[in-house]
Amino acid sequence: MPNSSEKIAVLIDGPFLNSVSNILNVRIDFKALKLVLAKRGRVGALKYYTCVDFEQETNSIIKLLDWLDYNGYRVFRKPVRPTTGQDGQRIYGGSVSTELATDMMLMASKFDHIVLFCNSLDYVYPISEAQRLGVRVTLANPSEASGFKLKDELRRLADEILDIGELQITPDQPKRLRVAAE
Fold this sequence. Notes:
Strand content: 25-35%
Largest sheet: 6 strands, parallel
Distance between the termini: 11 Å
Radius of gyration: 16 Å
CATH architecture: 3-Layer(aba) Sandwich
Low-confidence stretches: 167-182
Structural class: alpha/beta
Helix content: 25-40%
Shape: globular
Mean pLDDT: 82
Strand order of the largest sheet: 4-3-1-7-8-9
CATH class: Alpha Beta
CATH topology: Rossmann fold
Number of helices: 6
């Protein structure tokens, strides 16, 4: 339930949101997302966490991250870690859960409400600790109808669930999602 006097921190697990975007075959309209979140309260922090391959010269995520930086999002960039798969191929991966969880705990004393875009059990403990400190936690996740299911432990913890599966396609940009105005 939106409360315009609440001070809100929005924390986005970029690899999670990127995965959702790829599976749904859409682009997220981050400008509209920012406006809808601002209607829920006073957004005091808007952070996007991601892993980046800095050695790749033409990395499409870099343009998005630069745009986010320029448009009011604080972006945390973590280098990807190379590993070797079972077939000997080099695989690049990484996780931002430690950094995001640390920030969530640091912000718990400064915010009334944290909106978290994630679906990892790595966040169960930090969420429960933030709530113990009096912070309301909303989990943003696509609906089960779009092929996703919020993990039960997270669903039980959430004070509220924001269904990002309710994003609407704008007619002028059929491959872009826009958050529905509330």
